[in-house]
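Incident log, structure service

09:12 report received: a user says their structure output differs between two submissions of the same chain.
09:20 pulled the input from the user's history:
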Amino acid sequence: MCIRDRYMGYYSAQSNGFMYSGKDSSSATIPLNDARPQLVLKIWNAGAQLPPEDTKELPVQEKKPHSRRNKERKIGEIIEKVNDWRTLYTGTVDAGGKSVKYSLDDAAKLVGIAKKTLDDYLLQLRAGKKYGFDFQKHKDEKVGTCLLYTSDAADE
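09:34 re-ran on a clean worker, output below:
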């Protein structure tokens, strides 16, 4: 079946119904959470009544250009989280005066950020230090600023 000139929608678990991407769905983006554990699509003829009678009507999802993560963390927050993570790993003193060390995975869970993300942040911070990035000046900016600076500095 060719889907050109047909309407398409997908089931969104988050919205508990179908989201309609419109007639030209060739570049529609479906959030990964809605594609798990399975992706449910509905395709119907352009002349058919919208939406099909057996589905709930939801607002049409606007097509947006691919954008970066909207929750990008600020450099100051990253420095604080990485510091907390590494401090928990190297050892801290609990309320009873006993020394406590956590694995990197357990420390990441306590900080509330995935270990892989914290590893990436640590590498970015080390690269920023190596290339002379001014962390104090840019502490309220997003981490992309540091990443861009270090990639430009590494290219030179």
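09:41 both user submissions now match this output. Likely a transient worker issue. Closing.
09:42 reviewer note: The two ends are 52 Å apart (CA to CA). The CA atoms of residues 33 and 126 lie 33 Å apart.
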